[in-house]
Design goal:
- By secondary structure, this protein is α/β, with parallel strands linked by helices.
- Helices cover about 35% and strands about 10% of the residues.
- It contains 7 helices and 4 strands; from the N terminus they run H-H-H-E-H-E-H-H-E-H-E.
- A 4-stranded parallel beta sheet has the order 2-3-1-4, with helices on both faces.
- Helix 3 packs across helix 4.
- It is globular and about 60 Å long.
Length: about 180
């Protein structure tokens, strides 16, 4: 009884089995825990067969299998900051580029930009200019990676989802709350 009660009190994702119990959304991959990279660090290296390269190859393969032939836009999000969505988006983009694909990453977390925060971020995301920009990018690139804000924090990501062909929901063991899956 105590073990069952202890499991009930765990409120964070601990492994893929926890995710499978909560949702029937397919899992694209699991990344191994490694030494903490710098923020936004690229760990995938060309012509290497290390643990991280293989993990990202597996994620990439599963993602491409799920995407249709004409689908190009992949949105990366998470429940809250610090779950690794920018890290995974960047390394997935590099992994695609090593296949000879033209890839662009669009930073859509406009509440945490490199410059000043716009006064109306939600309204900017809702404008048709987003669709126009994505259509122009589709003409030049094989894949468009959208690195968005955490979906539990602001509505911007839900609004931007209209231009995506696939959403990759990033979770991190011992960080992502199980309640975060209500947003899927």
């Amino acid at each position: 009884g105590l073990i069952y009660l202890k499991d009930l009190l765990k409120y964070k994702i601990e492994n893929a089995e926890d995710v499978e119990k909560i949702t029937d959304v397919p899992i694209l991959g699991e990344l191994p825990l490694s030494k903490k990279p710098e923020k936004g660090a690229i760990v995938v290296q060309e012509n290497q067969n290390g643990m991280m390269e293989e993990a990202f190859r597996g994620l990439r393969t599963n993602m491409l299998f799920m995407l249709g032939a004409s689908q190009k836009v992949v949105l990366f999000t998470s429940t809250q900051p610090g779950e690794g969505k920018s890290f995974i988006a960047g390394n997935t983009a590099v992994s695609l580029a090593y296949m000879g694909k033209k890839v662009v990453i669009v930073g859509l977390d406009i509440r945490k930009p490199g410059g000043p925060i716009p006064p109306n971020p939600t309204e900017l995301m809702a404008r048709t200019v987003l669709e126009d920009a994505i259509e122009k990018l589709k003409e030049r690139y094989d894949y468009i990676i959208l690195d968005t804000a955490p979906i539990a924090i602001v509505t911007d990501t839900a609004i931007a989802g209209r231009v995506a062909d696939m959403c990759v929901y990033v979770c991190r063991a011992d960080v992502t709350p199980k309640l975060g899956y209500q947003y899927i």
